[in-house]
Design brief:
heterodimer, A: 684 residues, alpha/beta, Rossmann fold, eight-stranded mixed β-sheet, 23% strand, B: MetI-like fold, 2 domains, 0% strand
């Protein structure tokens, strides 16, 4: 992986292949309208697309861009209140846009199948999974009895489910999330469809599982010669799977081209913005080039280019007229006025060039201050032998066990782990939402866990604040922004009069980049990114010293993540804040944090300075996690070697594991034998 | 505000035609024909800006990008707008309001009054006539004034009991649902009270304490909060662990504030539904109690219906008038309750 410009995938050959073919499926000027409580929402505003046999086409876009709705039209699965109001979808000489429900039965599942995002909801919990696949096999392949069952077992084997005969009889709840998604894929491919539409199939899964599912989809495609449409918002995943990429915005395809063209030579300002806002391309300590604002509201009639208000390169005509599709190469089309011969010439942003060297980080600001390197570093928060359990008696569950770490004043300390690893539990234990069972938590040397005095309680609440993951759930929908932001002020009466309170609220809103007049609005009027910033304003108003940020960007759209990351970094600089940044995405963590702790099943397995962790990961779980991180460079991403972590590799029966500082500021969890191995690895 | 107006002006300027000019795309079209495989934007491409300006950079205003979709949203205004859309509920509310006003007016337009009614053996069970608009009772009293008086009594009782039950039920339900430690206690209390039929409590209290309508009202409240409390508790469970409540805990918000600012507003639609259904419910219950002889009030809709029991085959007016009034009240509150609880649900707003 050290050579950067090795072209591991021959996109040119694929492009020639595409150009020589007649499209398998082609959508033209498709328009889809939904009626919602008497209002019309145009979700797809004339989107066009060609799909060629045997390729993987990725559709990228943020929520509300219409990527999901667009592809649902290809299987006739639009929600009841939506309908195709214009355009055509040509497939095998017929127009799918005119199909009735009866016609769809010939196509759906047999020719075009779909895998959806949530494996929990797409399986019937009351039926063994074997039966569920059997239904599909019997219905579409016409097999009966033994032969059908044999086919099911073959399919289960093909999607990588071990012991298919035993698993055949099991129910969905007996499967893990990743295994469940394999079953959903098994159902979809059971009748050998020509086209498989994957709608964010890995979004709900952990990175390591995600990498495995991506591998599986690619293998199945090769074996069955399927054509795949892959919908995602994650550019790393796109780099992994896509031959061609279509970028959607505001219900239209605005750029489409071979993966290498879209990644290395994008032409649409939105694609530029999307790529340069990637934390992987950012310079640590500097601002990410964020996209301001929020995606368009499709209830309104959009005039001109939907992206214009957020576009730094917007021309006057962008506000007046919708741009046409311009051809860049035979396979690369862009819908932007900037490509017009009359438009001024604009260079693509510098950050995108860094994509081609994306194996190492884009760099670090040399002047940045790293608190842990400071000899006079001050410990702000200390977690000692922390244990948190849920439930009691037989149902007792140890969520976090034997966790030790220190957070220094002024640093961003990241806690990375997969879902269910206990990272959120630790964060919540520090702000005292979750009671702890063992150990203690110190803030500036004073114990804050367990029973504490009332003055201490007030002090802790004012200095420790939390930012939550889901901006939709973390604001009280029935209160105005004014109340939400000033809730802490009211609780401790931190203002002299009403006027001062309002001033404080408006200052806080301005500080997070919102307009002061927003204070009289209700949360549902805001987009995810704006809501997240309201949440940040709410904790800032207490003037905290320490903030637990619990996955603050994972529920946000790609274009908005950079805004929030920038804001957090900005606040850290201005106010000298310290963060505990909880995340599952290592690429974000590398950009934002000084030190990283990796947690697995309630146990911190490794803790080191960010670059040190990436350079010398020791624990096998850390290695597995690092190997699975999607890289937005298609050439690198396509050849990455996945390391699979198997916890049974540790033999802790005799030799008990310990938490050891193996090198200054680099901690790892293991028994004596393993630690010796790690030390030898470091010495190399 | 000033900033806002200024911005609007610039957008207007942009839209205002400077020079009317049709952009001619034929020149562009001539060059590479294949360049545009698709794109409907070319159809009817017309614009009102000189071409050289069209392709100049527009002023970039981050403030504009921050702009939000809707504005001037008010919760109660939206509730009202949604409620008004429900025509049957509006019609029935008007009918009910007229009926309610009429209960006060009816006596004064009649020559009789409840206070001065006397037994009159000559005019027993008279059918409705110009003299006795609703006929007379078995005691020869004017049924018109009696019916309207009884309606007033029943409505007052129903309102008192319904409000009492809902307030008690909501408060208990909130605490029951939110404070984990008290869950067990309230669940057991609920089971204890709920497993014995209420009518037994009612009979016991009527026999031991007395049969006045006031005592019955208190008893009905004391045992009637159960349903609401359980309903509220189940809803609180849904909202209790939402992140915004965790946020409030991080900010040190007191329990009562969390209950009333964070959770109570989400329950409004359910509470209003239960409140409106409790009113006809109480009237029906009062009828049952009267029928069983547990209420010793002289006149109430329940008592009138009970009295009509023996005579309504021969003298249907005894049953028809109170029954029609009870039906109007029941149907109105049912329709209004449903309409209002739907209107209160913010998912139906926008």
């Amino acid at each position: 992986m050290s050579q950067t410009n090795v072209q591991t995938v021959d996109f040119d050959a694929r492009a020639r292949q595409v150009l020589s073919q007649v499209p398998l499926l082609s959508a033209r000027d498709l328009e889809v309208t939904f009626s919602l409580r008497g209002q019309k929402l145009t979700a797809i505003r004339g989107a066009s697309l060609d799909l060629y046999e045997g390729e993987t086409l990725a559709i990228v876009g943020e929520s509300g861009s219409g990527k999901s709705v667009f592809t649902k039209c290809f299987v006739g699965m639009l929600d009841k209140n939506g309908s195709i109001t214009g355009g055509s979808i040509t497939y095998q000489g017929e127009d799918l846009a005119q199909y009735t429900e009866k016609d769809w039965l010939k196509i759906r599942g047999r020719k075009i199948a779909m895998v959806t995002q949530d494996p929990m909801t797409s399986l019937n919990p009351l039926k063994p999974i074997g039966k569920q696949i059997l239904e599909s096999v019997e219905l579409h392949q016409g097999l009966k009895g033994k032969a059908a069952k044999q086919e099911v077992i073959r399919i289960l084997n093909a999607v990588g489910i071990p012991e298919p005969e035993r698993r055949y009889k099991q129910y969905p709840h007996e499967f893990s999330g990743g295994m469940r998604q394999r079953v959903v894929i098994a159902i979809a491919v059971a009748c050998r469809p020509q086209i498989l539409i994957c709608d964010e199939p890995t979004t709900a899964l952990d990175v390591t599982i995600q990498a495995q599912i991506l591998d599986l989809i690619r293998r199945l495609q090769r074996e069955q010669n399927m054509t795949i449409i892959y919908i995602t918002h994650d550019l790393g995943v796109v780099a992994n799977v896509a031959d061609r990429v279509a970028v959607m915005y505001g219900g239209q395809v605005i750029e489409i081209g071979m993966a290498n063209e879209v990644f290395f030579d994008p032409k649409h300002p939105y694609t530029w913005a999307l790529l340069s806002a990637l934390p992987q391309l950012g310079v640590k300590g500097e601002k990410l080039p964020a996209i301001d604002g929020t995606p368009p509201n499709l209830f309104n009639k959009i005039k001109g280019d939907a992206f214009a208000p957020r576009n730094r390169y917007a021309l006057n005509i962008d506000y007046i007229e919708e741009p046409p599709m311009y051809e860049v190469t035979a396979t690369h089309n862009v819908k932007a006025w900037l490509r017009d011969p009359r438009a001024p010439k604009v260079e693509q942003p510098k950050a995108i060039e860094r994509l081609s060297e994306l194996v190492k980080p884009a760099g670090t600001d040399p002047n940045a201050y790293h608190p842990h390197l400071d000899p006079n570093r001050e410990t702000l928060v200390q977690v000692k032998d922390l244990q948190v359990t849920f439930g009691s008696g037989r149902k007792k569950f140890v969520a976090v066990n034997d966790v030790n770490f220190e957070i220094y004043k002024g640093e961003t300390f990241a806690l990375v782990g997969e879902s269910g690893s206990g990272k959120t539990t630790i964060g919540r234990a520090i702000v005292r939402i979750n009671p702890i069972t063992k150990g203690e938590i110190l803030f500036k040397g004073e114990r804050i866990s367990g029973k504490i005095s009332k003055e201490m309680d007030t002090k802790v609440i004012r200095s420790l604040q939390m930012i939550f993951q889901d901006p939709m759930a973390s604001l009280n929908e029935r209160a105005k922004v004014d109340y939400i932001v000033s809730e802490g002020l009211i609780n401790y009466h931190l203002y002299k009069n009403e006027h001062e309170r309002q001033d404080k609220v408006q200052n806080a809103l301005q500080e997070v980049g919102l307009l002061p007049e927003f204070s009289s609005r209700f949360p549902h009027e805001f987009s995810g990114g704006q809501r997240q910033r309201i949440g940040i304003a709410r904790s800032l108003i207490m003037q905290p010293e320490f903030i637990v940020a619990d996955e603050p960007i994972s529920a946000l759209d790609v274009s908005i993540r950079a805004q929030v990351l920038n804001l957090l970094n900005e606040l850290k600089k201005q106010r000298g804040l310290t963060y505990l940044f909880i995340a599952h995405d290592l690429s974000v963590v590398r950009f934002i944090s000084d030190r990283i702790a990796v947690i697995h099943k309630g146990q911190i397995v490794e803790l080191a300075e960010a670059e040190e962790l990436f350079a010398h990961p020791l624990h096998p779980y850390t290695k597995a996690l690092l190997s699975a991180v999607p890289n937005p460079n298609p050439y690198v991403e396509r050849v990455k070697q996945l390391i699979v972590y198997d916890p049974s590799m540790h033999d802790y029966s005799v030799d008990k594991p310990v938490w050891r500082e193996i090198k200054p500021d680099h901690f790892v969890y293991g028994n004596q034998k393993e630690l010796d191995g790690y030390a030898a690895e470091l010495a190399l | 505000m000033a900033k806002k107006q200024q911005r609007r002006k610039t957008v207007q300027e942009l839209e205002q035609p400077v020079v009317k000019l049709d952009v001619d795309y034929s020149a562009v079209d001539k060059e590479p024909k294949k360049e545009r495989p698709y794109g409907r934007a070319y159809l009817g491409a017309r614009s009102a800006m000189p071409e050289e300006q069209l392709f100049e950079f527009a002023e970039y205003r981050p403030q504009d990008a921050e702009k939000i979709g809707y504005s001037n949203y008010s919760y109660w205004k939206s509730v009202w707008q949604n409620f008004v859309k429900n025509k049957p509920a509006i019609v029935m509310s008007i009918v009910f309001i007229l009926l309610f006003i009429f209960t006060f007016v009816a006596e004064s337009i009649s020559p009789y009054s409840v206070a001065t009614l006397e037994q009159d053996n000559k005019s027993i069970f008279l059918l409705p006539s110009s003299e006795h608009w609703f006929g007379t009772t078995q005691a020869g009293k004017d049924y018109w004034v009696i019916t309207w008086y009884a309606t007033r009594v029943s409505l007052a009782l129903a309102a008192l009991v319904a409000v009492g039950q809902i307030v008690a039920g909501t408060i208990i339900g909130l605490v029951w649902g939110y404070v984990r430690k008290l869950d067990r206690f309230f669940t057991e209390l609920y089971n204890l009270i709920d497993n014995i039929p209420t009518i037994i409590y009612m009979t016991l209290i009527a026999l031991m304490v007395g049969q006045s309508i006031g005592i019955m009202a208190v008893t009905m409240i004391a045992f009637g909060w159960l349903g609401t409390a359980r309903n509220v508790r189940n809803l609180v469970f849904m909202y209790r662990d939402r992140e915004y409540n965790l946020a409030s805990r991080c900010l040190g918000t007191r329990l009562w504030r969390v209950l009333f600012r964070n959770i109570f507003p989400y329950l409004i639609s359910v509470i209003i539904l239960r409140l409106t259904l409790a009113i006809p419910g109480t009237i029906a219950y009062e009828t049952t109690l009267s029928y069983l002889g547990l209420i010793s009030e002289e006149y109430s809709l329940g008592i009138l219906l009970k009295n009509a029991r023996d005579s309504f085959l021969r003298f249907p007016h005894m049953l028809v008038f109170p029954a029609v009034i009870v039906s109007i009240i029941t149907v109105t509150f049912y329709l209004v309750g449903n309409a209002f609880s739907d209107a209160c649900d913010p998912r139906n707003h926008l």
